[in-house]
């Protein structure tokens, strides 16, 4: 009983300190994660009041949060979408890790930093700095509603590959002193078998089970969690990590129609456990010395540099866009929780020194906090890098801008007068495109769709639309797309999803660049919509109002028909 009371007390203190510190962080406009980590540090024996006596139990509970997070990630991974990226995603996933490990392994000795004397220290540093934090990245991208953007998909794709690399390395770890190719191939084979088993069972057993209990949401949720921990247990038994099992479990049922419902019910539970994960991380924070802080700063700087040179150039070369290249690199600018697991295993095998563990842990925590700011302002930072590259002739818009200049006003090189310009290719714009294809295909020849994401260029061009590069946050990129002679300019993106600007500033810019055009904008709030109309917008779309009108008309018609 004493042990149970101690555990309950430790959990209670962890939640209290995390909550209080996160409220302070919110008031100071700092990331909530910072509050969780500081709360853990204050509870620990290294820097705090030694209030938590059962650190191992807190860490074990926090691991559940990591497992649930990876399960949800698996549920959100659309394999069909990743497959569409095909060669690009596969190439990026391979090159990011291999180039990063090779670069750190080759360059780190020239820093003159002394961390340890074990023969595998350098290898562990290279691997640790090549992995990014799935937990932090996915949580922050979900908060910013960027998980389904191209850069978000590339980011998640890289994280999936990194998880696979991490699992492969953990399979090799016990044999580093005497590496055998057969054991390495065995580990790879086990991963393939786990994936095949999970997808087979989900298709032929779980599908029928879900159908049988479809009328009971609680049972669907319970069945999903059961499946998650079952695959985790199997993964653990065959020598893989439980985290890898959770990811595979989620991916194997992602195609089921109940996936979104499971995610919505699990998010609250996940956030509770994830909070404990960061508290547990804070509990481990050692009392920092000047030497450890200096080493950590150097390691973080190296990690940031490596992300830029191993991710952005590859994405740019694969024609996924300069902006997307830098956004993906910035999103991945932290050190993974997997790195801490790998280092802990390495210490158990006596591959690394305790000093290296302390330095990487400190680096991980500092990088985790720094990363929240980097992702928060990722579009502004990426735009700065984009402008710097544009000065040396590397730009997404160069080709489209030159085509527009050659074609003359409104022509855009295909002989058609395209006087209707749609800014941004997001949800409403995609639905609009589908309606045009079905109901008014002749109108397609009058439309230019301007977006900063070149991934949609081929798709739209094949349908007969004109695609043009445009970054809505930067007016100079809008001047090349024929706005001056446009009869109508439509922005279907509300302020909630616009990055680096808002509809007020956009209206001011469009009024100057397209003086004769009717300007149609999108807003989430009726009050803001009225202001935009007063400032000169011809029409403002309010998605919520339109949905309400549709529901009213639909229900009213149904009631009249039943009378």
Automatic annotation (TrEMBL):
The protein's predominant localisation is: membrane
Membrane topology of this protein:
Multi-pass membrane protein
Q: Which residues form the Cation/H+ exchanger transmembrane domain?
A: 16-370
GO cellular component terms, alphabetically, are: membrane
Tell whether rRNA-binding is among the UniProt keywords.
Answer: no
The record, for InterPro entries, names: Cation/H_exchanger_TM, Na+/solute_symporter_sf, NAD(P)-bd_dom_sf, RCK_N
Location of the protein in the cell: Membrane
Record-annotated membrane-spanning stretches: 6-25, 32-48, 60-80, 92-116, 122-142, 154-172, 184-207, 219-238, 293-316, 328-349, 355-377
SUPFAM superfamilies the record matches: NAD(P)-binding Rossmann-fold domains (SSF51735)
Give every RCK N-terminal domain span.
Answer: 420-543
Key words, A-Z:
Membrane, Transmembrane, Transmembrane helix, Transport
One annotated GO biological process: proton transmembrane transport
Q: Which residues form the signal peptide?
A: none
Q: Which GO terms describe its molecular function?
A: antiporter activity
Q: According to its UniProt record, which protein family does this protein belong to? A: Belongs to the monovalent cation:proton antiporter 2 (CPA2) transporter (TC 2.A.37) family.
* Name of the protein in question: Potassium transporter Kef
